[in-house]
Each structure stands twice: as C-alpha cells, then as structure tokens.
Riboflavin synthase
Amino acid sequence: MFTGIVQGTATVVSVDEHPHFRTHIIQMPDALLPGLETGASVAHNGCCLTVTGIHENYVSFDLMKETLRVTNLGDICPGDIVNIERAARFGDEIGGHLMSGHIMTTAEIVKILTSEHNRQIWFKPADVAQMKYILHKGFIGIDGISLTVGEVTATRFCVHLIPETLQRTTLGNKKLGQRVNIEIDPHTQAIVDTVERVLEKRETPAQAEQKGQQPGPWQE
C-alpha cells in the first residue's frame, strides 16, 4: 500500500528490452535507500513495482507487458524522471489517501492554466468509462500523487496544484498531450459499483405489472 505522498523523483538511467518484459534501472535518491531490499515494493508514477536488483544506488525493476500497456511507463526513455514512493509501513502518517499502486487507466493532459500561486490541469481519461468514479472533491491518484478532484465534466476533470506539489513531483514539468497514470479511489469505486448493481435489480411498478407481479414495498 502507498499513501500518494511522493517521497522524491528518480532518473531512469537504463531501459533494457527482453522478449516478454522490460527492465528499468533508476538512480534512487540516497534518502530512500535505507532498508531497501530485493522484493520490496516501490511505486513509479503510482504503479507498484518490485525491486529485482540493487547495486549501490542503482535499483532495477521488471515491467510486464500488461504494465507497459496500461500505464505511462511504456513511454519511459533513459533520462526521464519518475515519481517515487516506497511502500507504507504500519504506523506511518497517512498524509494523502490509501493507494494500492494498481493503475486503472491513463489520462491525457488537455489544458493547463497557470496563475501566480497555483496551476490547474485538466485531464481526459483514455477510458472515459472511468469518469463515473471521478467525483467533485473526491480522491484520485495521478502519477502516484494523492490529489483532490476539482471540476468534473462528462469526459474530463481537473486538479489544482500548489507550488510545493509542482516542485516535488513531475507534474511541474508536464506538457499538453502527455499521459499520466490514474488510480481511482477504491472506496468510491466500490460505492458506485454497489449502487449500480442495486439499481439494476430494482423494478419499477410498471415493470412488475408487465410481469403480472405486485411491486415490493421498496418499489412503490
């Protein structure tokens, strides 16, 4: 599990292609190295990856084809920067919201509005069906950053970013057309899906009458 509080950024120094997967090697910030072991979980742009090798501060991770397909990590080239968060430990402060590191979809940056003290960025999800889970003032993970949703339309949503977030994460350097990873808040997803299933099972009085049944008390 992760908290969505990015602990630092890391440079991808090598991308090695293999028949069925790809290996990324990053230069891990010194502050995030203590206690890091092979098999540990580290989020890259919000995507949970497993450490496969450590040599000094160079840390390697293997990415399966599905990870490369669903996330923006398939676009990564040597020299690119990724947001990094190590897995949360019991007793850690949860400054953002609980995140699993499982990316649901990506989103394209379609508008950037900059003012003196903050920046508003609009996103269009690749899978627009995910918009039903993106609610005004709800939680969302964007490239591993826990953020509050601002305005929402049928196909787009925005977030407001303070200077600290822009400075500490990769969002400060994002451009129009670039993709970010999206993780939906699982509690919101569970509530929306449950309500949809309940509504699908309910019958209106007219539907019950067509079947020759009396509507239940919850249907009247």
